[in-house]
Structures are given as structure tokens and as C-alpha cells.
Amino acid sequence: MGKHLNRAKLHFGTDTRGLLDGGRYSLLYTRTLEFDDLRPYVAGDDVRDIDWRASARSGSGDVLIRRFVSEKHHKITLVADTGRNMSALAPSGELKRDIAANIIGAFGLIALRRSDQLGLLYGDARGSGHLPPRRGENHVEAICDRFYFHTLHAPGPSDIAAQLHAVANGYRRRMLIVVVSDEPDPDERLAEALQQLTGRHDLLWVMVSDMPIIGSSPEELDGYDVNTGQFVINGATLGPKVIDAYRAAETARLARLNAMMAERAIRYARIGSSSEIRTQLVNLTQDFRHAD
Questions:
Q1: Which residues contact 232 (CB under 8 A, 6 or more apart)?
Q2: Angle at 197 between CA 288 and CA 116, to 5 degrees
Q3: Which element (helix H / strand E) includes 124?
Q4: Which residues does 61 contact at the CB level (< 8 Å), separation at least 6?
Q5: Which helix (H) or strand (E) holds 10?
Q6: Mean pLDDT of the 84-89 span
Q7: Percent of the chain whose pLDDT exceeds 90
Q8: Strands 75-81 and 176-181, bridge-based pairing
Q9: pTM score, two decimals?
């Protein structure tokens, strides 16, 4: 495997059994060699599946056909923020782009085992790029590499709503959409995009948690917002009242975001460290499993 998938394996492991099974939009069906049962032949069945011996023994006069277990496969598009927000720190002290790359790699590992088709739509406020859904290890590694490259080289302001609008306007056939971003602002543009998407597609959302802008530690230094470039004064200078007001505002913002997700029945997870990826994605994908 390539460097990105190998790195994802360190945090996610290799056991992907049962993950992403089910779901409303399992669009592709592949017949396995696992025998299921027998049933009477009907016009249109493959004559190669007729079990002549079982037909002769049945005594019913029916021609019996062998049925095999079918596996469901998904067509998945990862929608990823490659803007400046991915250059910020997560609560673990890791760069958010490193955690996001490991999340994308984990979904790649799941897709590889299931033979799912995996694509990528990525970008920032300036526009979007994409890789069409395909199968294969080299393709998944290319998805991880494309994401990481665009978070490193002159990213623009983050705007995940712009990428979601691009999906809503450009992807008409039903599929599973997996969003990988930070914790976005629950504004009208985001609500409008989600309203369009949830009527046609199934959504999972993985949010990389934000490091608090101020008040994260008594020893913090002055900093800046990576998305806007604005200067941020350290918490010790601002004082406890300002820090408390900031924390209250952030709590209210996240509550509005949670309500927006719940209102549209969007399953989501927050991840603040690469060490949390395994647990959070297993919980998220097993919840999806029961969404038939």
C-alpha cells in the first residue's frame, strides 16, 4: 500500500468487516458463490443456474433454480474541505489535515474490502475539483494524495457549503456522500445545500474538531485564525470574562449545528485525534448499517 493508506492503517487497523453494510442506497449488486436456496424457475432466469438433479428429486414437476447470496456495493463520494481550515490544529495538537487524511484513508480501506466505488470532490471557497468514483488500491491512494496536496499548496478560504452545492448541482444519481471537514458554521447556505442533498443522497459527516481559539491553556500565546488571517489575542490578555463569553458562543454554535444535523437525520461524528478514528467510524458506519 501507499504511504497514505499505510498511515491510515496505523490508526484504523485492517478489520473492516460489517462496516457500511446496508444503507438505503446500496446501488450495485454482485452475486457471490455462496449458495442460498432453491426456488422454481421463472422466465428470465439464467438457465445456467438450473439444478437439474434437485428438480428431478423434488417430485413437484417444477424446474428448480439455485439462488446465491448477493452482496450490496456502494458508490461513494467523499466531499472534503481542502481550504485553510485544514491547516489549523485539532484538540490533540495534530494538524486537522493529518487527521482528515487518515479519515479519508480509513474510508478507502473500507471501500477496498467491499469493492465499493470511491470518488472525491474537494475544494475551498474558490471552487471544486473531483476524482470520479472507481475501485482499486491505486485509485484510493490517489484520492488521499490529491486531498493532502491541495491542503498544502496555497489553499483558499474554507467553505464546505460550496462543495456541497457542487455535489447537489452536479451529482444527480443517488449515492452515499461522506463529508470530511471541520465543524462548519450552521448558516443558511449550509442549510440550503443539505436540504438539496438529503432528498436525493444518503449522508455521513465526519467533523474534525476545532482547537479552541482562545482559552485552551494558561500558557497560550497570541495567534491568528488560519482561515481569515486575523490576529487572535491570547486568553491571559483578554481575561476570564471574554473567555467565558467565547466559550458560551461556541457552545451555542455547536448546539445549532447539532440541531441542523438532527433535523435532517444526518449521521455524524466528531473526531479530535487520529487515535479516535477507529472507535468513531465504527460507531458511525454501524449506525448506517441499520438505515435500510
A1: 213, 214, 222, 223, 224, 225
A2: 45
A3: strand 117-124
A4: none
A5: helix 3-12
A6: 94
A7: 56
A8: parallel
A9: 0.79
Q: Is the CB of residue 230 less than 8 Å from the CB of residue 159?
A: no
Q: What is the pLDDT of residues 99-140, one digit of tens each?
A: 999 999 999 999 998 888 999 999 999 999 999 999 999 999
The pLDDT of residue 27 = 42
Amino acid at 183: E
33 Cβ contact list (under 8 Å, min separation 6): 68
Q: Residue 279: which H helix or E strand, with range?
A: helix 277-289
Q: What's the maximum distance between 2 C-alpha atoms anywhere in the chain?
A: 90
The x, y and z cell numbers of residue 235, run together, are 486568553
- Which phi and psi (to 5°) does residue 99 adopt? -65, -45
Q: How many helices (H) and strands (E) does the chain have?
A: 9, 10
Give me the sign of the Cα torsion angle 194, 197, 202, 208.
negative
Domains of the chain: 3-24+74-289 (3.40.50.410), 31-71 (no CATH)
Q: At 269, which helix (H) or strand (E)?
A: strand 267-271
Question: 60: pLDDT confidence band, cut at 50, 70 and 90?
Answer: confident
H or E element that contains 121: strand 117-124
Tell how strand 223-224 and strand 202-208 pair up. Answer: unpaired
